[in-house]
């Protein structure tokens, strides 16, 4: 049985999210958006999906000349650049199309679904250029952002180090002042950076590294903590054409994302890598959060896309695979496995995870576009840990179900679903693990400053009111509001605990909070679907699918919130206080 690879996302579902639900036409020409989505779907299928298996098999290699990646990756990114998609979200004065982030996110989702490893290069490049455009000097923008916006150069983010990982306070890369030139204050960088996606390759004219480092004090010592971090632009090739003192010490060989060259970089093995300071000393982490938060939404979006494609592949397989007979029927021909209740249950779970994840990320993309509105900014800050984590966890769950539906075939490399699972398994880890996002949500976003909670509660209550006015949705909203009340009660208990004990079960709290958020996202979609014109059969089926997926989420997923909160409310310290010797 041949596996279909011509469907990446549901075109109707993308239209539903952009137009019917999020009303992108209120701020942007709808025809332009549709043209961009059509173009993205075609390019993704023709040039990204076409080397999906090859990029997994032919990993990047390292020799004396640097890192070499699959040539088809460079060809695909050339088509991406020719279409202007690197530039899509940038202002016209920077050579961009000034498209909203929502349209760019919907476009990117197609490329991530087709080949997330290749899509990682433009994702990082656009975020790199956006940071420089926001915080760099005019000369830095001209020299380093514009070539990336044009898709001629690619970019990276160099944060982690071998000894530090996600603990950025432990960064040891140092930056020694080295005068000043037309690009600003120049420094010499020395240190090692680990897990650098796109850290080296042979398909772009240059690579712009954004490097977090510390400037030593007058005593020569590096400052403690993250307050001493500064941000530097350190290109692979300097403006005069000379090679910068940046070398690849090795490649990391990952389980998935194999087409993305992942490097250990050494800065300053000789005289020090030249880097130009962005903004002022000590502002590096604040600046880098712009890129990190964009990357977190993009990681969630990529995870949603991977889960979505596995759902579509599962659906087609279940419709074609003949096996077994209905319960109670002993004779006759085998039926397609989609007729078996347990397969339909798995498909409905996949649909709820994949479509819910995509909708959440697109909603957050719309909040990015409303950056001038303080309430939207506050709500985005609160939801970002969920947008990164929930799709990463449950997009992966959709991939896992896809293998189960495919049975033994799903466990073979001939079918894409095993690679989709491997690719997606990275997403709960990078750009901040699930545990780190849980600490961020509970600590920084809620217990330290819970000002966005009333905004989210108002959204939930408004959706509940609309749902209760629709006959086929009546009865769903109370369970969502009850789950939210349980979240509030749990937070009251946590606020009364000593700080060192409040985070013992931060991750179960994140799971519970995320499920309530997705319950709201699904109710929003169901309300919109219920109001669609269902005179056409295909439209009626689409609307019924949305409503049924919402009901399935409320029936099968929302009840999990109570169980997760039990451990949080009980203050279970079984794990936190377990002696190391017991492991």
UniProtKB/TrEMBL annotation:
Domain (Acyl-CoA dehydrogenase/oxidase N-terminal) ranges: 75-152
Annotated ranges, domain Acyl-CoA oxidase/dehydrogenase middle: 157-267
CC cofactor: FAD
Alphabetized Gene3D superfamilies for the sequence: Acyl-CoA dehydrogenase/oxidase, N-terminal domain (1.10.540.10), Butyryl-CoA Dehydrogenase, subunit A, domain 2 (2.40.110.10), Butyryl-CoA Dehydrogenase, subunit A, domain 3 (1.20.140.10)
Key words of the record: FAD, Flavoprotein, Oxidoreductase
GO MF entries: flavin adenine dinucleotide binding; oxidoreductase activity, acting on the CH-CH group of donors
One Pfam family cited in the UniProt record for this chain: Acyl-CoA_dh_M
Domain of life: Bacteria
Residue ranges annotated for the Acyl-CoA dehydrogenase/oxidase C-terminal domain, each copy included: 282-441
Domain Acetyl-CoA dehydrogenase-like C-terminal as annotated: residue spans: 462-577
InterPro entries: Acyl-CoA_dh-like_C_dom (IPR025878), Acyl-CoA_Oxase/DH_mid-dom (IPR006091), Acyl-CoA_Oxase/DH_mid-dom_sf (IPR046373), AcylCo_DH-like_C (IPR036250), AcylCo_DH/oxidase_C (IPR009075), AcylCoA_DH/ox_N (IPR013786), AcylCoA_DH/ox_N_sf (IPR037069), AcylCoA_DH/oxidase_NM_dom_sf (IPR009100)
UniProt KW Translocase keyword: no
Matching SUPFAM superfamilies: Acyl-CoA dehydrogenase C-terminal domain-like, Acyl-CoA dehydrogenase NM domain-like
Family that this chain belongs to: Belongs to the acyl-CoA dehydrogenase family.
Protein name, as recorded: Acyl-CoA dehydrogenase
Source organism phylogeny: Bacteria, Pseudomonadati, Pseudomonadota, Alphaproteobacteria, Sphingomonadales
């Amino acid at each position: 049985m041949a596996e279909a690879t011509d469907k990446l996302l549901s075109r109707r579902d993308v239209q539903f999210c952009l137009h019917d639900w999020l009303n992108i036409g209120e701020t942007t020409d709808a025809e332009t958006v549709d043209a961009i989505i059509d173009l993205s779907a075609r390019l993704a299928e023709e040039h990204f999906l076409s080397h999906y298996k090859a990029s997994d098999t032919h990993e990047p290699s390292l020799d004396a000349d640097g890192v070499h990646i699959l040539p088809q990756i460079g060809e695909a990114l050339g088509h991406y650049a020719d279409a202007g998609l690197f530039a899509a979200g940038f202002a016209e004065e920077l050579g961009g199309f000034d498209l909203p982030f929502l349209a760019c996110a919907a476009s990117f989702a197609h490329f991530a679904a087709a080949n997330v490893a290749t899509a990682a290069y433009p994702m990082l490049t656009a975020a790199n250029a956006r940071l420089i455009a926001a915080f760099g000097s005019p000369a830095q923008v001209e020299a380093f952002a514009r070539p990336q916006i044009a898709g001629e150069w690619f970019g990276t983010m160099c944060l982690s180090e071998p000894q530090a990982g996600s603990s950025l306070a432990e960064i040891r890369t140092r930056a020694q002042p080295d005068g000043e030139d037309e690009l600003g204050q120049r420094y010499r960088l020395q240190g090692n950076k680990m897990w650098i996606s796109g850290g080296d390759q042979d398909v772009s004219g240059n690579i712009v590294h954004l490097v977090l480092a510390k400037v030593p004090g007058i005593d020569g010592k590096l400052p403690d903590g993250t307050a001493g971090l500064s941000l530097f632009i350190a290109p692979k090739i300097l403006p005069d054409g000379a090679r910068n003192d940046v070398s690849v010490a090795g490649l990391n060989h990952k389980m998935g994302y194999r087409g993305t060259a992942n490097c250990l970089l050494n800065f300053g093995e000789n005289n020090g890598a030249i880097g130009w300071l962005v903004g002022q000393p000590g502002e590096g982490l604040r600046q880098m959060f712009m890129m990190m938060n964009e990357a977190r939404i993009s990681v969630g979006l990529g995870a949603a896309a991977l889960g979505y494609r596995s759902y579509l592949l599962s659906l087609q397989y279940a419709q074609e695979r003949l096996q077994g007979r209905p319960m109670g029927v002993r004779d006759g021909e085998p039926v397609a496995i989609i007729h078996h209740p347990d397969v339909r249950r798995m498909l409905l779970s996949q649909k709820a995870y994949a479509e819910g994840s995509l909708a959440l990320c697109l909603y957050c993309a719309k909040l990015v576009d409303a950056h001038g509105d303080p309430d939207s900014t506050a709500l985005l800050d609160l939801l970002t840990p969920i947008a990164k984590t929930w799709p990463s966890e449950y997009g992966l769950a959709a991939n896992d179900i896809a293998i189960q539906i495919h049975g033994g075939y799903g466990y073979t490399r001939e079918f894409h679903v095993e690679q989709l699972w491997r690719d997606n398994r990275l997403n709960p880890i990078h750009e901040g693990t699930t545990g780190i996002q849980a600490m961020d949500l509970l600590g920084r976003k809620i217990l330290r400053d819970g000002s966005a909670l009333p905004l989210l509660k108002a959204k939930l209550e408004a959706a509940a009111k609309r749902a209760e006015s629709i006959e086929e949705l009546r009865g769903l909203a109370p369970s969502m509001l009850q789950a939210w009340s349980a979240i509030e009660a749990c937070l009251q208990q946590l606020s009364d605990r000593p700080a060192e004990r409040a985070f013992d079960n931060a991750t179960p709290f994140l799971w519970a909070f995320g499920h309530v958020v997705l319950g709201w996202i699904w109710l929003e979609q169901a309300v919109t679907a219920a109001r669609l014109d269902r005179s056409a059969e295909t439209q009626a089926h689409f609307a019924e699918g949305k409503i049924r997926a919402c009901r399935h989420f409320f029936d099968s997923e929302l009840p999990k919130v109570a169980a997760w909160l039990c451990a949080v409310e009980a203050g279970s310290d079984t794990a936190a206080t377990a002696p190391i010797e017991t492991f």
